[in-house]
Amino acid sequence: MLDPKVLMTIKDLPLLAKTVIDGFMNGFNKSTVKGPGLEFSQYRSYQPGDDLRWLDWRMFARSDRYYIRESEIETSISVRFLVDASASMNHDDNGIKKIDYAKALAASLAYLANLQGDSVALNVFKDGELFSLPSKPDPQHLQRLFYHLQQVDPSGTFTKPIHYKELFAGSGRKELLVFITDMYQADGEINALLTSLAALKHEIIVFHLMGQNELDFDFKGYSTLEDLETGETIQVNAQRAKETYTAKLQGHLAMIRSGLLGKRIAYRMLSTAQPLDEALRDFLVQRKKGAL
């Protein structure tokens, strides 16, 4: 597990993604992370001419008969990464911005998806507009996705619903949608987006990013907090406000979680201080559902 602060010193996004996935797979059961190819289906009796590499010797030991392991082609899917690049994603905690964590997470998951033979796509929600990179499975396309991710610079507010039609104009193929966001919204626009996407029967997982200083309300020495999207400021006494803030935050997170689970959307809240391993495992679980 690599410390996110160490990872963020790697400025080359493809190298960062490869570093994360190589480390993840070294500590994970590699049999569950495989590229396009063969997946076990069933046994059948051995026939002369069959490839002896597929003989199951354990079955022979139990039954004294020869059996061949038959396999089927593993299904590849389309994975679309939806990245929130509104100004609030510039939130910084101990030198790590949410947007940098989001880029590292999206790049690592895209690299892993490409290893699985999946096609990848990218949508960036920024400054009220929507950037779209269509879904393709080839390695060159993965490099294009890395390039566009690298260029993302958060600004403005989250994209308005009028632009969402670009997301619904595809081939109609079901996709695994990976939404990376801080869930900051002025008028329910993120909820509207997720409701619309869920209605299309896509598999969706939301990675909700928060700074550890937001979770702990660790703003010692600060008496003024600023909204990164509206510029509004508020005077606070961090010490006195902490107890009330913590209670309200827990209620807020519980409401987000229950609302998404009610739409059959997978949800994981991530602190930008924690390694990416949990997110990678969640992704593999949802990918398996998407391939069914």
Q: What does this molecule look like?
A:
This protein is α/β, with parallel strands linked by helices. The protein has nine helices and twelve strands. It has helices spanning 4-7, 13-26, 57-63, 98-115, 139-151, 189-199, 212-216, 238-262, 277-290; strands at 38-45, 67-73, 78-84, 92-93, 96-97, 119-126, 129-136, 176-181, 203-210, 224-226, 233-235, 266-271. A six-stranded mixed beta sheet has the order 7-6-3-8-9-12, sandwiched between helices. The chain has a two-stranded antiparallel ribbon with strand order 1-2. Strand 4 (92-93) and strand 5 form a beta hairpin. It is elongated and about 80 Å long. It starts with a helix and ends with a helix. Residues 29-40 have low confidence and may be disordered.
Helix content: 25-40%
What overall geometry do the principal axes of the alpha carbons give? elongated
Global mean pLDDT: 82
Low-confidence stretches: 29-40
Strand order of the largest sheet: 7-6-3-8-9-12
What is the radius of gyration? 22 Å
Count of beta strands:
12
Q: SS-based structural class?
A: alpha/beta
Largest sheet: 6 strands, mixed
The helix-strand sequence is HHEHEEEEHEEHEHEHEEHEH
Determine the N-to-C terminus distance. 30 Å
H/I helix tally: 9
In what range is the share of β-strand residues?
15-25%
Architecture blueprint of SSEs:
Elements: H1 4-7, H2 13-26, E1 38-45, H3 57-63, E2 67-73, E3 78-84, E4 92-93, E5 96-97, H4 98-115, E6 119-126, E7 129-136, H5 139-151, E8 176-181, H6 189-199, E9 203-210, H7 212-216, E10 224-226, E11 233-235, H8 238-262, E12 266-271, H9 277-290
Parallel strand pairs: 3-6, 3-8, 8-9, 9-12
Antiparallel strand pairs: 1-2, 4-5, 6-7, 10-11
Helix pairs in contact: 2-4, 4-5
